[in-house]
Amino acid sequence: MNKLFDKNLKAALNKPRDKTVVLNDGGGLGARVSPLGKVRWQYRYKIDGNGKRLDLGDYPEVSLVKARETARQCREWLAEGYDPKLQRAIQRNQTLKPVTVKDALEYWLTEYAEENRANASKHRAQFKRHIYPYIGDYPLSQTETHHWLECFDRARKGIPGKRRPAPVAAGYVLQNAKQALRFCRVRHYATSRVLDDLVVTDVGKKQQKRDRYLTDQELGDVWRLFHDERYLRYYRHLIRLLMVFGARTQEVRLSKWDEWDFECLIWTVPKSHCKTNIKITRPIPEQLKSWLLELKAANKENDYVLGELKKPEAVSQTGGQFWKRLGHKEPWTLHDLRRTLDTRMNDLGIAPPYVVEQLLGHTMPGIMAIYNRSQYLPEKAEALDKWVEWLELISTQPHNVVLMRA
């Protein structure tokens, strides 16, 4: 072992000779010297009596000390029952082509979220906004907690003149990133635990539970938007459908005409469009049939009920400004229309709570979720008919009129 010295290698380097020679250092390590004087390290070993050779790089780029260190690692692999050539190839691949942060997050999005999360597109958009531009190309195994914290802090504080503070979004991205890294770890795709100790409050804020629902006056104002041509048809139609069905925005935004059965008057929301990954069956009120058929005839250019597919961020941002345009004092969002339906249907006695919950697409509680598979279509149909009548009524009544229970 250690038979060579640098002076031996330098003496042979770039010196022409008649034939190739090997300068042995011992322990399987040798320096192969070509007739042109090129010196290349090699490690020789046997598996099942068959001789093998592994090139370790050229001298002097790979020093004598480094070559001995690599040969020692090869002997350890061999003693553990691994082929050094295969192990070195795996190691080099991990170094030269590491799994990046973007690779890991996209792996989770593609292999899990796109099939099981209705908001997968939103998750990807937030990664693209807050993570990929900054550490997306970093090898995941080399990232440290502070690299991620810089991204979360940037989202939480915002960028002056460019991006508003988004503490809730920072917490949301953390939760999804933690799930993504756990998924990669369980699937043995990549390993990192740099986010394990972080919680939402370390990087931002939890989303607060909202209790905002619209008053009858506000609801009447919103219902009248449908006839106001100052607003884009897309949003007028979106809001009308949200108000009638209490649907989630994405259920309407992604809806295509093949979900709508006008013979049976049923709208079936597929699992892939539902946040809770369940199919939602909603009757179509007779009052809306003619309008929907006209809308379908007008949208022959594509299959989307709203005539086009807008990004969720654009819809959310525009929808969050309608309260200002209508002169309402307290802010409300498109999702608050859903809470309003839930609240007012129960207040007015339009339908039993379990029927309202099914209309909203909520998972039934406890044992009911397992055994009760009824869709309550007649009860839903009756409830929606009454609800549309109520919306029409409050949109035409003076604001100071007290309306009776339905």
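Second entry:
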Amino acid sequence: MTQGLERVVAVVNGKGGVGKTTITANIGGMLAASGYRVLLVDMDPQGNLAEELGYTASDVNDDGLGLAQTLAFGSELKPVVGIRENLDVLVGGSHLDMAAAGLTMKAQKDPQGAKAALAAALGPAAPDYDLIFIDCPPGQETLQQAALAAARWALIPVKTDASSRKGLRDVARRLDAVVEINPDIDLLGVVLFGVNRSAKRVSEAAREAVLNDLGEGAPVFRTSIRHAEAAAQESRERGLLAFELEEAVLSAPKWWELRRNNVEHDGPRSKSAVGVAEDFQALGEEIVARITANEGVATSEAPTAVGEATR
């Protein structure tokens, strides 16, 4: 593994729609707000991280051109600095299709070099960050392999349905393909996403199915992320992360205050954002604890709250 990439986490699944981008944005944003220096890498040609973080229509959104040039030609990484305090982003988008084509051609002559393109680019920048999260595309095997070759950890979101768990086998195949040049990569954990809290039996069955797929003792996070469609939709519309929407909800005037003052309500409406934000905080704590424990930090010294950043 390239020196300095020990805290790079690839959020990956072979299937789309399982929460990869939402988890990348919310965990990265929450840790940044807690004082960690965080870089998010959008390796998806769909570029949905822009929608989650609210910079879709901004001048900083180059639709992945800069990252594509880095992957294809080895040019220096130029993250967008300060998307949030302590949070920088390597912007993704449709230009990454061009990068994937270029890496596919390169792989014919230099397969290891093609897989290591992102790792080589991240190496010089990694010391500037405490954690790096890579949002991987569900398809585009070339880009997915480049992401996994640069990562110390793989974090796999899955939903409770059987079809989404099929992506686990795709991830296992991708891991096998990069282990030669990245033998240190390991599974950080599987997280259940979009869980219906009232369907506990379904959630437990899904958790057991994951363990059957991966084997007993596989790292499955205790925390799951609940299904809250209204909160998710409002978060994307407003370009706010779950904890930011939670803060807006809690600070908004009460309905009777608006009615008394004859004021139209144009503030946040999704009260479920509070619960979703709590889920992401709990998952962030588990992620930090697992990484620091692996680095030899005693359990008693590991952070007990997302705000306790380790330097």
